[in-house]
Design goal:
By secondary structure, the chain is of the alpha/beta class. It is about 30% helix and about 15% strand. It has a single domain, classed as Rossmann fold, CATH 3.40.50. It has an eight-stranded mixed sheet. The longest helix is centred in the first third of the chain and has 19 residues. The two termini are about 20 Å apart. Bound molecules: ligand NPW and potassium ion. Ligand NPW binds next to helix 1, helix 2 and helix 4.
């Protein structure tokens, strides 16, 4: 049997449903915690603080959280980045009331004194190349369907203007990309780092390997489950939550 290296948006949603279904019984909270934790680990790997000056260490990591679960991954990631010694700031313009859980994630950020900006705040003030280490793009993941609606369209247009000067770390899918077809509509970001969760989506075959470092993270499935969906598990080392592909 040939093994797939990527899974479609449809299959990714099916995998998610089965993981959180009655037979397996993961909760969304559990998977999101591991997903966000792995993205924070990828940021550490890519932008290590060790040996950096105090000025460098004080730079912001600007996390933009969208309205769905990709945004939730961003909220979790920001908390872990703070624990790891970084200086995250979260921009959360459209807050989900889908579940109480998103509010709890915001309370946890308040607990760790991570600023969480609302839509009406001047978020661009935090995005200065000399003051910002990177941007974590947790706007849209595998449920995004173009064309992009406001306020995200305007936000992503601003990110596109900045991305040559501030590196973008995209969570699961670069925002604006069609999950299966890649960057076929605008606006869409061109990330310096992509962290695919569970297994890469087809759009990841469109990244320019010279520009984008690709990690896989979200280490939560056994081999027989992966094989059932036509792919292999990844060779994570030791306790690592990410693997550079
Ligand atoms: N097993 C795993 O790997 C795990 C994966 N996880 C993560 O979940 C992610 C998938 O999350 P998801 O299904 O909630 O969808 P996501 O992509 O966040 O977007 C949905 C939101 O976007 C909106 N929206 C859509 N199109 C739009 C448009 N054109 N313009 C504007 N808005 C638009 C849409 O709005 P609606 O259409 O409903 O009005 C809805 O609010 C996945 O990529 C991974 O990061 C982990 O957390 C757990 C384990
Ligand atoms: K994203």
């Amino acid at each position: 049997m040939s093994t797939l290296k990527v899974v479609s948006s449809k299959l990714a949603a099916e995998i998610d449903k089965e993981l959180m279904g009655p037979q397996i019984g993961f909760t969304l909270q559990q998977l999101m915690e591991l997903a966000g934790f792995s993205v924070a680990q990828a940021v550490c790997r890519q932008f290590p603080l060790k040996g950096k000056t105090e000025t460098e260490k004080g730079k912001h990591i600007f996390v933009i959280a969208g309205p769905g679960n990709n945004g939730g991954d961003g909220l979790v990631c920001a908390r872990h980045l703070k624990i790891f010694g970084y200086n995250p700031v979260v921009y959360y313009p459209k807050r989900s009331d889908r579940t109480e859980f998103y509010k709890q994630l915001v309370h946890q950020l308040n607990f760790f004194k991570v600023p969480v900006l609302s839509q009406d705040e001047n978020w661009l003030d935090y995005l200065k190349p000399e003051k910002t280490l990177c941007i974590v793009d947790a706007i849209f993941g595998f449920s995004f369907k173009p064309p992009m609606r406001e306020p995200f369209k305007g936000i992503v247009e601003e990110l596109c203007k900045l991305q040559d000067r501030i590196p973008i770390v995209s969570v699961d899918v670069p925002t604006g990309w069609d999950v299966d077809e890649g960057p076929i509509s605008q606006p869409s970001v061109n990330p310096a780092v992509l962290v695919s969760l569970t297994v890469p989506k087809p759009c990841s075959t469109h990244i320019d390997e010279k520009h984008t470092t690709h990690y896989v993270g979200g280490r939560f499935i056994p081999r027989d489950f992966a094989n059932k969906y036509g792919f292999e598990t990844f060779g994570y080392e030791s306790t690592d939550q990410i693997l550079k592909l």
